[in-house]
Design brief:
The protein is of the alpha/beta class. The protein is built from 14 helices and 9 strands. It folds into 2 domains: about 210 residues, Spore Coat Polysaccharide Biosynthesis Protein SpsA, Chain A (Alpha-Beta Complex), CATH 3.90.550; about 80 residues, no CATH class. About 40% of the residues lie in helices and about 15% in strands. Helix 11 packs antiparallel against helix 12. The two termini are about 30 Å apart. The relative contact order is 0.12.
Amino acid sequence: MQCTRHKKNTFHIVAVACGQRAQETLVMIKSAILFNYYQEYLKFIIFTEAPLTEIIKEKLTDWRDTLSQQFEYELLPLKFPNQSEREWKTLFKPCAAQRLFLPSLLKDVDSLLYVDTDILFLSPITDIWKYFGKFNETQIAALAPEHENENIGWYNRFARHPFYGRLGVNSGVMLMNLTRMRQFNWEQHVFPIYKEFKLRITWGDQDIINILFYYHPDKLFIIPCEYNYRPDHCMYMSICNSSHSGIKLIHGNRGYFHSDKQPLFKTVYAAIESYQFSSNVYSDFLLPLRTALNAQPVNESSCGKISGDILLVANSLFGSTY
């Protein structure tokens, strides 16, 4: 009964967890549930492998007991095209290429949000999901730009292959309309691109996605940088204007959630990691996060300047109602 009742309004969130990524995956899931203020029904689909499967399953089962009506999950084994499984599995970071095959692996899913495991939600799922409704009739996916500034852009300075737009796109947060991607024959486009450019790509599946949308720019919708906020946006100078809307999803790529280079990222991760679902979100999450973001190491770092943008949505959701 429960599945039928929720099926139409289920928000699918998909990630791929390999190697040492079990804890990071769980903190990402926790952030999505924590910021699920409007109590949408979330379904997490995680592609993973032993021994991570059991680690993730144990924790998610505990959370389900506490929050039984709010989410469900499915843990699926990694699956790649048979003829080149080993090659795809080692592309860039462990198993990231899995995402390229979601249209055929999840045939019953219409639309989903794919996130890298080093993503944290700082806003409700509905904030980013609304962009599906803004797609025109040709668009099949949405991504944020890789850079906002040509002087420090990677693709425009170093890429040895075509890429989308002026500065490329970052694939860590991706809205995917799987129905449209299947109609487009997405995977039939992926294989020839990989064959032609595999010796010239640096960032694995992200490069393949950039090349594909270079040839089919009409298929891509661009979402604002605050939906995929990364250290590059603040470590040199502030190049993502998130002061109005706040930072919606934060991306600790290149290990920044576990590094002291820009302590703001580690601070946000630690606040979500230590929060317990049975506790009070105002006194046990928001207040400690405010305090931690005020600490001297954060304040004195380049990215410390955007602490207010980090807190903006959390303050409005949890600041006065708890």
